[in-house]
Amino acid sequence: MNLEIISPEKFIYNGDADVITLPGAGGVFSIMSHHVPMFSILKAGTIVVKKADAELSFDIKDGVLEVKNNVLVICVNE
């Protein structure tokens, strides 16, 4: 799946991801490739991006996300 993480100030990440774990308003949840379309609010915590060859993490204050057509866009405040 293609993943973009952006903030009002900059692009934080743009690339492929296998599993993304997120701090949702209702609790931590994960998104994988071909997830159904959705929109969600994020709370303070850590986004974890798992790829075949790496694991990355990004601390956020809050944010929103949209999943559509195997593309995940996350807008965050750092």
Q: How would you characterize this protein structure?
A:
Helix content is 0%, strand content 72%. It has no helices and nine strands. A five-stranded mixed beta sheet has the order 2-1-9-8-5, with no helix packed on it. Strands 4-3-6-7 form a four-stranded antiparallel beta sheet, with no helix packed on it. The mean pLDDT is 96.
| Strand line-up of the largest beta sheet | 2-1-9-8-5
The termini sit apart by: 23 Å
Provide the helix percentage. under 10%
Taken as a percent bin, the fraction of beta residues is over 45%
The shape is: globular
What is the number of strand segments? 9
Radius of gyration (Å): 11 Å
Instruction: Classify the secondary structure makeup into a structural class.
Output: mainly beta
| Major β-sheet profile | 5 strands, mixed
Let me know the average pLDDT.
96
In terms of per-residue confidence, which ranges show pLDDT below 50 for 5 or more consecutive residues?
A: none
Concise account of the structure shown:
This protein has 78 residues and is mostly beta strands. The chain has no helices and nine strands.
List the helices and strands and how they pair.
Blueprint: E1 2-6, E2 11-16, E3 19-24, E4 27-32, E5 38-42, E6 45-51, E7 54-60, E8 62-68, E9 71-77
Parallel strand pairs: 1-9
Antiparallel strand pairs: 1-2, 3-4, 3-6, 5-8, 6-7, 8-9
Characteristic key phrases:
globular, mainly beta, 78 residues, 9 strands, four-stranded antiparallel sheet, five-stranded mixed sheet
